[in-house]
Design brief:
The protein is mainly alpha-helical and about 500 residues long. It contains 20 helices and 2 strands. Strands 1-2 form a two-stranded antiparallel sheet.
Length: about 500
């Protein structure tokens, strides 16, 4: 079997600059989404805030990421509008990295992270939209690569930050006493790796100084990440120039007029936009019930699966250090890195699998494997070794669900619906809401509820997938194309 179909390779060669640009902006997304957890204690020292106050920075980023995902589709009316939004968003991320060291107040830091979250949400929606629009029925492979770049950015960010993190309490009390050991600091840093592990739960157990001299070198990490990210907005700007959309281009006005005309001509059929514009009565009139069901079920599946990813990443450390496992905090701290590394590796592997197998089969396989692994983790809940193995396999299995679901759902709706915006928004919502829910469950019911939640959620997700496949069959029947519900539409 060839690694890449000759036709796909020809398509890529024709559109390589657009494709590489969209992939690179997702590197920015991953770079920005992963830095906050490892650096949060140093940022607490920089802002002289309590743990309860600094956890609001996580919420600020997540909430505005959700808002940006919901509104991102508004920028796709023309290619210039989409690329301008991507350029602005990626440049904002570099600017936020640059100004974070200057935020010596937790409110200013929360505002900076809100702006970054908004930019991330816009990137998430537009990059997915444009790549689906660019390749349509051939988008599955390219979407897998797109989401691989999130994992790549998420791996680079903590590596850049790590040499500059403070191992002990970085606020030195003027009284000369310290009430937190380096062991406590290490435990806290691992707990807050992705924001959920300590979010509003038990933060008061670790009293840390807020008054005194701040000793931290984390500013250098943010400035390095700002420089690493700068080539991304430069690549977007180069694409704008390549497409002759800059005012200085001789052919720019002609191309802008053509782009505007094609957008107007296609507006009756193209429903992509914000979540709110997708609900406009004019766009919903005459649609069969299965049209709405496909959006609802696809969004619900990603709400659950991205929620599983977010909650597992945020709480696997907390689960490991609590009884009955009671791991050492340094050992448990590796679990989160193993999980994200396996997700990145899984997306790399699924690039080739998505070429060989259809998206619906990959979804069935992935969700069945997730259920099996969650059940085994629940069964062997006292085994340290199996927790590492299970974490790795779970990341591999769940890694491809989002890009496969996006390609599959858009294809079912013939690339005329609001599927991308709805799915991206649903995934962002699930990641934020289920982390809060799982945090409350662990806090009130104990650590065993963590694995039980994951098993139940994955079973619900698989049942929803089966219902989606049946809905696909009914939808094709209503629109005059009958095929097996297990057969891919491409």
């Amino acid at each position: 079997m060839k690694l890449l179909d000759e036709r796909l390779w020809c398509l890529f060669k024709l559109r390589w600059q657009q494709t590489l640009t969209y992939w690179s902006v997702f590197f920015s997304f991953g770079l920005c989404i992963a830095f906050l957890g490892p650096t949060i204690l140093d940022l607490r020292c920089q802002t002289h805030s309590t743990l309860q106050q600094i956890t609001w920075v996580f919420f600020s980023q997540q909430f505005f990421l959700l808002l940006g995902s919901s509104l991102g589709g508004l920028f796709k009316k023309t290619l210039l509008c989409s690329l301008s939004a991507l350029f602005s968003s990626t440049l904002i991320i570099s600017l936020v990295f640059s100004i974070i060291p200057l935020c010596h107040n937790v409110i200013l830091l929360s505002i900076a992270m809100a702006i970054a979250g908004l930019a991330m949400g816009v990137i998430d929606t537009i990059a997915n939209l444009q790549l689906v629009k660019l390749y349509q029925k051939d988008s599955a492979v390219f979407l897998q690569v797109l989401h691989f770049f999130i994992g790549l950015g998420a791996l680079v960010s903590p590596l850049v930050a790590d040499p500059f993190l403070t191992e002990e309490n970085c606020v030195q009390s003027t009284k000369g006493s310290s009430n937190s050991s380096s062991s406590d600091i290490g435990h806290l840093r691992s707990s807050m790796a992705h924001g959920a592990g300590m979010l509003f739960h038990n933060a008061s157990r670790y009293p840390l100084h807020t008054e005194g001299i701040s000793i931290t070198r984390v500013s250098f990490a943010f400035w390095i990440m700002a420089l690493i990210n700068l080539p991304v907005p430069a690549a977007v700007l180069a694409l704008i120039y390549h497409e002759r959309l800059l005012p200085c281009s001789n052919d720019s006005q002609r191309l802008l007029d053509r782009d505007s005309t094609s957008t107007t001509a296609g507006s009756a059929d193209d429903g992509h936009g914000s979540v709110f514009s997708c609900c406009h009565p004019d766009k919903l009139r005459g649609r069969p019930p299965t049209f709405f069901l496909i959006h609802i079920l696809g969004g619900a599946i990603l709400f659950i699966t991205d929620g599983i990813i977010g909650s597992y990443a945020g709480f696997v450390y907390t689960y490991a250090v609590l009884p009955p496992l009671s791991m050492a905090h340094k050992t448990a701290g590796y679990l989160d890195s193993v999980f994200w590394a396996s997700i990145t590796a899984g997306r790399l592997a699924f690039i080739f699998l998505s070429y060989a197998y259809k998206a619906n089969r990959l979804l069935i396989f992935s969700l069945m494997a997730v259920i099996l692994m969650q059940c085994l983790l629940l069964l062997f809940y006292t085994s340290d070794v199996f927790l590492f193995i299970g974490t790795c396999v779970l990341g591999l299995c769940i890694s491809s669900v989002f890009p496969s679901m996006l390609a599959f759902t858009e294809d079912m709706l013939n690339y005329k619906g609001c599927a991308t915006t709805v799915l991206v928004t649903s995934a962002s919502t699930g990641e934020m809401v289920l982390q809060l829910l799982v945090g409350s469950v662990i806090h009130s019911k104990g650590s065993y509820a963590f694995m039980l939640y994951g098993t139940v959620a994955s079973c619900i997700g698989f049942c929803l997938l089966l219902l989606l496949l049946y809905t696909q069959y009914l939808h094709k029947k209503q629109t005059g194309v009958v095929s097996s519900p297990l057969r891919s539409s491409y």
